[in-house]
What we know:
Elements: H1 2-12, H2 20-51, H3 56-71, H4 73-82, H5 92-109, H6 119-147, H7 153-182, H8 184-196, H9 200-204, H10 223-228, H11 233-244, H12 247-277, H13 282-311, H14 313-332, H15 341-369, H16 375-403, H17 406-412, H18 415-424, H19 429-439
Amino acid sequence: MKLIKGENNFKKNLFLSENSFLRYLNFSILYLAQGAPEGITFYAIPAWLAMNNKTPMEIASYVAVIGIPWSFKILIAPLMDRFTFLSMGRKRPWVIFGQLGLIISFLAIGLVQDPLNNLDSLMIAGFFISFFGAFQDVATDGMAIEVVPENEQARANGLMWGSKTIGVSLTLVAGTALINALGFSIAIPFLSIAFAFFILVPICFRERPGEKLMPWTKGKPSEYAKTIQLDSWKKIFKGLLKVIILPSSIFISIAICFNGMLNGVIDTLLPIYTIQELGWTNTSFSQVYSTTTLISGLFGMFAGGALVDFFGEKRMLSIYLILTIAILFIIGLSSSLWGFNSFIFGFILISTLLGTFISIAFFATAMRLCYKTVAATQFTLYMAISNSGRAYGSGLVGTLKEIFSWEQIFMLITISPLITILIIQFINFVKHKNKLDKFKTSISLKIKTI
Length: 450
């Protein structure tokens, strides 16, 4: 009898809703899986293009195109809220679908012939990688909002975003090394083999007790999943509309957009600036950037969420953004020091660290403003706005470089964090929660708190 009881406890602990350690582990690995393709498509390939003398406009156009699917996430989220294979969980089937798509699309990008002279095909292939990455991202975020208790969200966001930056770091350096050693057409598909192992996580860990592991195994939908499953488009969009027109929702949407623009400009600018202006190789850039993102990821995992928990989202965001303005002013006014690699390394490290901490704080803020009934769609809307800003910022780099010098560009982009600081001061969590409580009963959806 004791043995049977022990076995039952062990099985119970393999469900995300029942085990906090498993939740942290699951979402850390899934966000590591999100960072892996981004490390290749958004960093390794642009650096490779810069190394092969592609113009800033061509590189910026490539990054802007592959960033487009991340802006479509708001179209994906309602689809996931409305339809799913409920006996396997509300979001887990979509996570598995996204992972399968990533594996196939990475194999496909290796089929692009002469990618340096066929940027249109490279953009299309990269677009599909981002498309399936967006599917996996939305499903993971939706699953996290539903199974992670509110008191764990800041810590979970730190682990998740830290893991993602580590994924970016590791695949950037590995991808660059493989591209240089094996060539693009062999290196990229080879990496898809490594990505294939990530799919084991959503396959092995179920959301709630009683659900199926796979479609052909025994199981049934959990009572919680049946209670909150949305059964009409009208309910989804009615609930979403009510919450996104609240003042704090509007303010965070604007702030996230401007922060996304800043991220897009910096991410696209760095490989072009270091390789074409400073004379670095793509290997040098990948080593520096991967090192700084790895350090930032580790700090984000263990300190990012804790700082938000202790000091609050708005205070930490304000501090991080002020420091971002300062570091951009310093690099813009210090062109005489650009020849010192240690100085540039310090700039990339600090800017990457601040970017990671800002993302963690914004994620925690967005989750706190979400209304459980439409949380997945609402959170995805915020992230879609951020990615729209990022795509626009990426495409802006080529235009900025044609008009301004590098010194002027660094100074100009401080406008974005400055505006963001001003906007987040208008976010009021207490008033937002009170307004949600007032119209909670008006949304004709039953929901049971976790």
